[in-house]
Amino acid sequence: FCNIEKVLQVLTQVAGRAGRSARGGKVILQSFTPENYAIQFASEHDVNGFYERELKYRKDLGYPPFARLARLEYRNADNIKAEEEAKKLASKLQVKIEAEGRHQTELIGPAPCFFAKENGEYRWQIVLRSPEPASLIKEMRLTDWRIEIDPISLL
User: Fold this and answer.
1) Is residue 131 situated within a structural domain?
2) CA–CA separation, 50 vs 118, rounded Å?
3) Domain boundary residue among 35, 61, 87?
4) Which domain holds residue 132?
5) Domain assignment present for 16
6) Of all residues in the chain, what percent are helix, strand and coil, respectively (each to 5)?
7) What is the pTM of this model?
8) What whole-number distance in Å separates Cα of residue 72 and Cα of residue 147?
9) Measured on CA atoms in the order 147, 149, 154, 155, is the torsion positive or negative?
10) How many CA atoms lie within 13 A of 50 on its CB side?
């Protein structure tokens, strides 16, 4: 969900560098999605407009800063074992969510990561969207899991 910020940042930086010379400069961008709002706001040099749109988008979808995300990733050389561990943890988390009445908590997954195999290991992930996901996983022994709170990317 943060990738769109990077698009705006890079385009703004490129435009700034192109305009540094005494003759000025021009940025020509070729895109499959010229209607993308980051491209539109960057072309208009409207960072504030982008900021307002992005905050509305994040609020509507429950992304930070309006909710918190936790990304839990399990890796194993055996894909079946990785999947089983991910399913086992997801089941435990779901029971805990229901037992504690965490109605605002959403459990997403388990699912293979976008890049399912990396360095000879299969990767499975669970994503929690919640006002406070860290408190949900704090007491659980997750020594073999990689945990990111408010990750920059969900890939």
Assistant:
1) yes
2) 34
3) 61
4) 68-149
5) yes
6) 40, 25, 35
7) 0.74
8) 5
9) negative
10) 21
